[in-house]
Amino acid sequence: MDELLGRKIPQSAQAEQAVIGSILIDPNCVPEVLEQLKADEFYSKLNRDIYETVYAMFSYGQTIDPVTVLDQMKVRGVYQDNCPEYVAEVMRQTPTAANVLEYAAIVRDRALLRRLGETADEINTMVYEGAGEADAMLEAAERKIYALRQGRSIGGLTPIASVMQNVIDKMSEAAASGSRIPGLSTGLPDLDRMILGLNKGEFVLIAARPGMGKTSIALNIALYAAMSQGKTVAIFSLEMSREQLVSRFLSKAALVPSQNLLTGQLTEQQWRDISDAATAISATDIRIDDNPTLTVSDMNAQCRRLNKLDLVVIDYLQLMQSAGSGHSWSNESRTQAVSDISRMMKIMAKELNVPVMCLSQLSRASETRQEKRPMLSDLRESGAIEQDADVVIGLYREGYYNKECENPNLAEAIVLKNRKGSTGTVELAWLPEYTSFQSVERRYDYDN
Questions:
Q1: Which of 245, 254, 325, 406 has its CB 3.0 to 4.6 Å from that of 277, i.e. a possible disulfide?
Q2: Taking the model in full, what pTM does it have?
Q3: Is 239 a known active-site residue?
Q4: Domain locations in the chain?
Q5: Fold that domain 180-442 belongs to in CATH
Q6: What is the 3-state secondary structure (H, E, C) of the chain?
Q7: 248 close to 258: Cβ distance less than 8 angstroms
C-alpha cells in the first residue's frame, strides 16, 4: 500500500545489517542488544530471522558465531541458500561492534515510526468508516497510542517462540531479584506467600461486608508499596475524599490514633510523629482522584497518561454502577452493569500491565447464615466478578459480630480464589485505633 501511494516506509537497511554484523563479530554485546531491541523491530525478514535465532541461542546458553547461527537457522527452518553470503557480507560491512547500541537505537526508532504510521491509518479508517461514537473511537485511539508507548501491539497472533522468550525472561528476572514472590509485596508476609504478591496484569478483588476493613487493608497495601518499595500508586476513591484518605495514611504511618487526628487532641510527641510521617508520605508517588462519577474508561485514560505506574486501587466497585463505563444502564439490569464494569477492570489490568486492586461489597446473604465467613457466592450482583478476578480475598472479623469473643482484634484474610496457587485463610491483626492491619507475628499489644 505504501509503495502504491508513493510513500517511503521508515527503515534503515544499513542499521539493521550493522546490528546483525556486530553481534556476529562480537557475541559479548548480545545481552545489551537483546535488552534494547526486539526481533519484530527489524523490517527485513532475513535480518529478523537471524536475530530471532541469536535470541533463542542466547536464551539457551548456546555458543554464538556465524557457523552455529547458520546451523541453528537450518534447525529452525528459516535458512535460505544465500544466508552464508549474506552473513559474510554484513560482517564485512560492519565497521565496528563498539557502536552496536547506536545502530540498535536507529532500528528501534524506524520501527516505532512504522507502527505509528500503521496506527494512524487504523484510526483514520475507524473514523471514516463510522465504526462507533466519537467517545468510543477516542478511547480506542488512546489505547492504540498507549500500546505503542509501551512497546506492545494490540491483538494479533503471536508466534509461540516469542511468548516462550517472554516467559524465560520473566523467570530470569525473578531468579535475579532473589525475591520469594514474583509480584509486588502487600507488606503482609503470610498473605504474600499465599497469593505470591500482586502481579502485573492481575485483577485483585477484596470483598467484605461494610465495616470489615476493606478500605483499610487496601490503603495499607498502597502505602507499603509507595513508602517501602518506591512504587507509583494510583488511588481512585468513589466513597472517601482525598483528605480522609490522607488522614488514614497519617494515622497508620505515625501510629497516632485516627480519633486524635480528627479531634486535634495531640501531644507534642504525636505532633512530631505526624510531621515526620507527613514528610515521608509527601515524598511518595501516590496519586489520588476522589471524583465519585468516574468511569472505568476515565480511570484507564488517567493511568495511561502516567509515565510510571505500579499499582491501581479502586474503592469501590458497586459505586461505579451508575456511571458504568460511559454507557447508560437505564435498560439494563444492575447485575449486567456490574458484570461489564468488572470485565473492563480485568481488561484495564492487562492493558496497563499492573495489578488493579478493587474493593467490593458482599451481599447480605452472609448475615443470615450461622457461619458468617464470606464465600464466593456472596459477591454482590454478579458471578462475573468472580469469573474476571484473578484473586479474591474476603475479609472477616469475629469481633465485628461478637465483641465478647476471645480475640476481637483477630482478622482473617480468606483467599477465596487464586489463579496462581492455593486458597486458604491468613490471620491478621486488626488495629482499630489506626484503622490498620498487621501480620499476626508483628502484632502490637495495646492492652498493656
A1: 254
A2: 0.66
A3: yes
A4: 13-163, 180-442
A5: Rossmann fold (3.40.50)
A6: CCCCCCCCCCCCHHHHHHHHHHHHHCHHHHHHHHHHCCHHHCCCHHHHHHHHHHHHHHHCCCCCCHHHHHHHHHHHCCCCCCHHHHHHHHHHHCCCHHHHHHHHHHHHHHHHHHHHHHHHHHHHHHHHCCCCCHHHHHHHHHHHHHHHHCCCCCCCCCCHHHHHHHHHHHHHHHHHHCCCCCCECCCCHHHHHHHCCECCCCEEEEEECCCCCHHHHHHHHHHHHHHHHCCEEEEEECCCCHHHHHHHHHHHHHCCCHHHHHHCCCCHHHHHHHHHHHHHHHCCEEEEECCCCCCHHHHHHHHHCCCCCCEEEEECHHHHCCCCCCCCCCCCCHHHHHHHHHHHHHHHHHHHCCCEEEEEEECCHHHHCCCCCCCHHHECCCHHHHHHCCEEEEEEEHHHHCCCCCCCCEEEEEEEEECCCCCEEEEEEEEHHHCEEEEHHHCCCCCC
A7: yes
pLDDT computed for residue 151 by the predictor: 63
Q: What is the CATH number of domain 13-163?
A: 1.10.860.10
Q: What is the pLDDT of residues 16-48, one digit of tens each?
A: 889 998 988 888 888 888 878 888 889 888 998
Chain centroid to CA 28: how far? 33
- Choosing from 122, 239, 398, 427, the catalytic residue is 239
Across the chain, which distance is largest between two alpha carbons, in Å? 85
pLDDT tens-digit series, residues 385-441: 777 888 999 888 887 777 777 787 888 888 988 888 788 888 888 888 788 888 876
Give the CA count within 13 Å in the CB-facing half-sphere of 394: 21
